[in-house]
Amino acid sequence: MLVVMQHDATAKDVDRVVSIIKEMGYEARPMPGAQRTAVGLVGNDGRVDASRLEALPGVAQIIHVTQPYKQVSREWRAENTVVTLAPGVTVGGDAVVVIGGPCSVESEEQILSAARIVKAAGGNALRGGAFKPRSSPYSFQGLGKKGLSLLARAGKETGLPIVTEAMDSDGAQMVAEVAACIQIGARNMQNYSLLKTVGKMKTPVLLKRGMAATINDLLLSAEYILAEGNENIILCERGVRSFDPAARNMLDLTAIPIVHRLSHLPIIADPSHGTGLRDKVIPMARAAVAAGADGVLIEVHPEPDRALSDGAQSLYPDQFTQLVGELRAVAAAIGRSIPPAKSGTAQL
Ligand code: PEP
Ligand code: MN
Known about the structure:
Layout: E1 2-5, H1 11-23, E2 27-31, E3 38-42, H2 51-54, E4 59-63, E5 83-86, E6 89-91, E7 97-101, H3 108-121, E8 125-127, H4 145-158, E9 162-165, H5 169-178, E10 181-184, H6 192-199, E11 205-208, H7 215-227, E12 233-237, H8 255-262, E13 267-269, H9 271-275, H10 278-290, E14 295-299, H11 317-333
Parallel strand pairs: 7-8, 7-14, 8-9, 9-10, 10-11, 11-12, 12-13
Antiparallel strand pairs: 1-3, 1-4, 2-3, 5-6
């Protein structure tokens, strides 16, 4: 439930609402806005009797949030959430961010080379998995902690913020030491203890849609993170399982305008896992930006034919460079832009 204050409500009025909510046994979350302050009431499972709050001085309106997810909903917060990955790299505003890099961190040479490619092409952040959730236990599982330190080096050299996956709570703490954003992969979208752990942290979280998850499931998983206090959430559409084996997954671009309508959280698209095939990644990345995605996550590898994971969907460096240029044009056509690359030390 949301208690919307009048424009001229005083700090004392807001404090009174907060203390009555607490007296009623709930948690109060004051949210100062550009127009007026609202106070969120959380901790209720069902409808709350609002009559006590409605009558308080300075209260304009009580909104009962109708969605099962509360703090994630547009009813709760009308303005878009803007998540900052680094100075000048924000997700959810006018900008469209390009997050590029290999599926896995494989070696120092590979990740440094990938980082330079992403930087030179005008990408805004570097991805690469150190902890890899693989379908087979016999597949490459990632370099673990060593991979994180290699990512840190690549980030330092290029100035690109790092996005990398954590598979469990211990991993989340380690990832947060080097990453600007903790990725929660599709397989862990409903790992509620992991969601609670990252919810207690301040580091931005990239939450990928589960391969058989509805949009409602995705938003409820985001609510777990927000409910613990971390508001820095970026959602990611990465394709869902379908009946058709023609592509690895079916990239659900409809999710982008649907999520924008239902939630204030930003949503990006991952056409790499969404299609699984290099030549399909390019048109679907363009389509994702045209559909209003707040960013794209693209796998690119210095030598995709030698990649230890997801080589078939990883772009060749020149394809990635060309794609970023095309995405700039698509973004411009809808009044958005890809943040300009900042000067750094990277050279190709
Ligand atoms: C990845 O980003 O490399 C990954 C494993 O993605 P997903 O969780 O979407 O399969
Ligand atoms: Mn991958």
